[in-house]
Amino acid sequence: MRIEQLLYLIAIYKAQSISLAAERSHISQPAMSSAISKLEDELGVRLLKRTSEGVYPTEPGLAVIQKAQDIVRLMEEITLIGKQDGLELKGDISLAVEQHVNMILMPKVLTLFKQRYPNVMVMQKVGESNNILGDIQAGKADFGIVIKTRELEKTKDLQVTELFCDQLVVLAGRNNPLAAKGSIQMSEAIRQPLILLNTEYTTQCGISEILSEYGPLQVAFRVDSIPMLEKLLQQGRSIAFVPRLAAGEYTQTQKLVALPVADASLDIPIVMARSKRHHFSTLEKELMKAIRAAFSS
After folding, report:
1. How far apart are CA 38 and CA 108, in angstroms?
2. 3-class secondary structure per residue, 119-187
3. SUPFAM superfamilies recorded for this chain (predicted)?
4. Which of 52, 59, 261, 286 has the fewest Cβ atoms within 10 Å of its own Cβ atom?
5. What is the pLDDT of residues 86-128, one digit of tens each?
6. 248 and 178 belong to one structural domain
7. Residue 151 and residue 7 in one domain
C-alpha cells in the first residue's frame, strides 16, 4: 500500500469521477484506475462502485476513505512540524467566490496569503452563488464563499459555516429619478426594471430567490459581469440589488447611488460551503483564517 493510492482514493471520493480526479491529481485516468485496482487487490475488497451518476464508495470503501483522510491529516501535521516557515509549504487550492465577495475582499486576502505562502497555487473562480454550488458538488472547487440561498439550504451533502451577515441595498444610476430618494420602499423597488448578476443561463440566482418573496420580478437583464451591470445602471432606469458590503465600491465614482430598503430586512448570510466529502487541508485552513480575518475587519 502506498500513500499515493490513498490520495487517489480520496480524490475520487471528492470528485465522484475517476477522470476528474485524475485531472486534478495530474495523472492519467488509466494510471489512477490501475492504482485503485491494485489497492483493492491488496485489501481484498471492492472500494468503489460505478453508476450512471458517478463513482461512489462501497461500505468498506467508505471506511477505508475515512481512515485514509485521517492518515493524510496526520501527515500534514507532521509536515508542518518541519516546515514552520511558510516558504516551505507547497500545494494547490481551488475555490469559488461570489462576485461581490471577490470584488471587496479577495484581492487583499490572496495578496497577503501569497506573500506568506509563495509556493502555494490558489486557483479561484468567480461566479454566482447557486452556480458555485454545482462546482463544489462536482469536486471542481474545494470550497466556496457564497450567499446562503434556498438552493444551498436544500442541498444535503454540503457543510456550511456562516462568516458574515449582510443586507441587500438598491443600486441605481445617478440620473435615475430614484437616486434623489434617501431610501426606497420594497413595494416600489420590486416594480422597477431589474438587472441580475448570473454566470449561467439556466440557474436561478440567489438574489432573485430572496426578492421573489416580495412579488414577481421585472427582470430587464441578466448579465455575467460587474462592469456590464454598472454600465447598464448608469445609462438606463434599471436598478440592481447588491450587498451593502459592496455598495461603497460601486458608488465611489459617484455615477451610482445606493439606497437602503426602508421597510424590508433583506438579510443575506455570507457562508463558506464545502462538500461533506472534503476535509480541509492545512493550507485550506490557513486560507480560511485569512478570509475570516478579512470579514472581521
Report:
1. 45
2. CEEEEEEEECHHHHHHHHHCCCCCEEEEECCHHHHHCCCEEEEEEEEEEEEEEEECCCHHHHCCCECHH
3. Periplasmic binding protein-like II, Winged helix' DNA-binding domain
4. 52
5. 556 778 899 999 999 999 999 999 999 998 889 889 999 999 9
6. yes
7. no
| CA 67/CA 65 separation, integer angstroms | 5
| 31 shares a domain with 173 | no
Backbone angles phi and psi of 120, in degrees to 5: -100, 130
Please report which helix (H) or strand (E) contains residue 94, including its range: strand 91-98
pLDDT in tens, 221-246: 999 899 999 999 999 899 999 999 99
Asked whether residue 70 falls in the same domain as residue 127, the answer is no
- Indicate whether 137 and 280 sit together in one domain: yes
Residues of the domain holding 257 = 166-265
CA dist 16 and 24 (Å) reads 12
Residue-level pLDDT at 90? 78
**Average pLDDT value for residue range 36-65:** 90
The reply to whether 144 and 281 lie within a common domain is yes
